[in-house]
Amino acid sequence: MTASTLLLYISLFLGLQILLGVAYGLTRQSSRPATLVALDKTQQNERPNLAWNGFRAFRVARRAYEDAAQTQCSFYLEPVDGLPLPAYKPGQFLTFSLLLATKGAAARKLIRCYSLSDSPTPDQYRVTIKRAMAPAEPVGLPAGAASSYFHDHVHTGSTLQIGAPSGRFYLNADTDTPVVLIAGGIGITPMMCMLRWSAQHQPQRVVHLYYGVRNSAEHAFKAVLKEMAVKQPQLRLHTVYSKPLPEDRQGPDYQHSGYVDLVLLKKTLRHVAHQFYICGPTAMMERLVPDLAAWGVANADIHFEAFGPATVSLPTEVTEAQGKAASAPISVHFQRSGRTLSWSGQQSNLLDFAEAHGIQVESGCRSGSCGSCVSTLVYGTVGYDRSPDFDLAPGQCLLCLGKPLEALALDA
Ligand SMILES: Cc1cc2nc3c(=O)[nH]c(=O)nc-3n(C[C@H](O)[C@H](O)[C@H](O)COP(=O)(O)OP(=O)(O)OC[C@H]3O[C@@H](n4cnc5c(N)ncnc54)[C@H](O)[C@@H]3O)c2cc1C
Ligand code: FES
């Protein structure tokens, strides 16, 4: 080998080294921002879709009461498999499948939904559950089954079966329009999530919280809300006590007495250019939703969620189901039960109708949220006063919101 050939080989070798070095450097550089972007996205609540099908095991990491009366308890939940959790939209809920064991009787399966009450984190969810007391009249009825079970039997270390976050009641993040959150009692839970999310992601957005509660004993998240209002000048708190205790002080404890109603909203907001989110007792929602529409708030700016059966609808919405209600009676055939019944429009939905005639149908939330009352539609058409919280597959119908529009047969 001549000296010049050797020199040529050395130059080629060095050149190759430089090329490999540059290529390696470029690869590293190009992979670094990608990782950072992924991290940023995680922080911005845009984690890849990690939702799961069916129910997943969660362990209760801790529980804490949120009110002085100890009727509202938060449960912090971590997945048993330790894998990251999907983000959720502020306002969505979890579905729980509970197996309630009663002495001397077969275990009873219950499906219940609970709103996420904190902003999303990759490793933990939080729900806050109010103990549903037995009604005063008639005497002797049992207290709420699922909520009592949570309060009395679910402790740190307990395992629960939970469906992935879902629901269509969530804060619209595509706009800066000021938000009005109206919560009655335990309806505060989705609002807590919206408030936290908004403080983190849209700190410039004005948020009014109208929180109606009996008095300081049931005033959940009292200290947390006060602290949030101090830290967040854009948050305007309007706490409304309906039955203040003698020691409750207007000013430090609450701002208004009475109920959250249109008079108060008009006085404090002055104009309708807000996005309204309402969650509370049926009576409050059935009054406020039409009142807001009558005040001139656009239907698209009124969002509401019922925590149980409620027939709230926007006044201008005459649905197909309502429109056809007068044309009863309609024949409804329950295929598996072998019964054909006549729908006369007395019940407000097919679930109530089936139960009133002794036909057992699986159910949970009774408000179109959990999906337990989904049934196959053999033939016919079912109409809805409002859309369910999820998309129904073709050929399926939802009994707790549905009404027959013509003769139909169900696989139930
Ligand atoms: C989307 C969604 C989100 C929700 N989020 C929350 C939340 O964040 N926090 C929360 O606490 N709840 C929430 N709920 C409500 C929750 O799912 C349950 O409905 C609630 O906990 C009551 O369930 P329960 O099993 O304890 O009561 P149930 O056993 O269903 O009883 C309900 C009430 O009826 C009474 N009752 C029992 N038997 C009778 C009878 N024969 N006649 C008349 N009354 C009777 C009970 O005493 C009780 O007061 C949500 C619901 C939905 C749909
Ligand atoms: S009972 Fe929950 S969707 Fe019908």
Descriptive overview:
The protein has 412 residues and is an alpha/beta fold. The protein has 3 domains: 55-132 and 143-166, Elongation Factor Tu (Ef-tu), domain 3; 179-305, Nucleotide-binding domain of ferredoxin-NADP reductase (FNR) module (Rossmann fold, 3-Layer(aba) Sandwich), CATH 3.40.50.80; 320-410, Beta-grasp domain (Ubiquitin-like (UB roll), Roll), CATH 3.10.20.30. The protein is 26% helix and 27% strand. The protein contains 8 helices and 19 strands. The strands form 4 sheets. The protein has a 6-stranded antiparallel β-sheet, covered by helices on one side. Strands 10-9-8-7-11-12 form a 6-stranded parallel β-sheet, with helices on both faces. It has a 5-stranded mixed β-sheet with strand order 14-13-19-15-17, with no helix packed on it. Strand 3 (93-102) and strand 4 form a beta hairpin. It is globular, with a radius of gyration of 27 Å. It starts with a helix and ends with a strand.
Instruction: Name the bound molecules.
Output: flavin-adenine dinucleotide, FE2/S2 (inorganic) cluster
The number of distinct β-strands equals 19
> Biggest sheet, open or closed, and with what strands and sense?
6 strands, antiparallel
Q: According to CATH, what is the topology of the largest domain?
A: Rossmann fold
Give the terminus-to-terminus CA distance: 90 Å
Helix content: 25-40%
How many DSSP H or I helices? 8
Tell me the CATH architecture of the largest domain. Answer: 3-Layer(aba) Sandwich
- Helix and strand sequence: HEEEEEHEEHEHEEHEHEHEEHEEEEE
Low-confidence stretches: 12-45
CATH superfamily of the largest domain: Nucleotide-binding domain of ferredoxin-NADP reductase (FNR) module
Q: How large is the radius of gyration?
A: 27 Å
Strand order of the largest sheet: 4-3-6-1-2-5
Strand percentage, roughly?
25-35%
Shape designation = globular
Supply the CATH class of the largest domain. Alpha Beta
- The secondary-structure class comes to alpha/beta
Q: What is the number of domains?
A: 3
The mean pLDDT is: 86
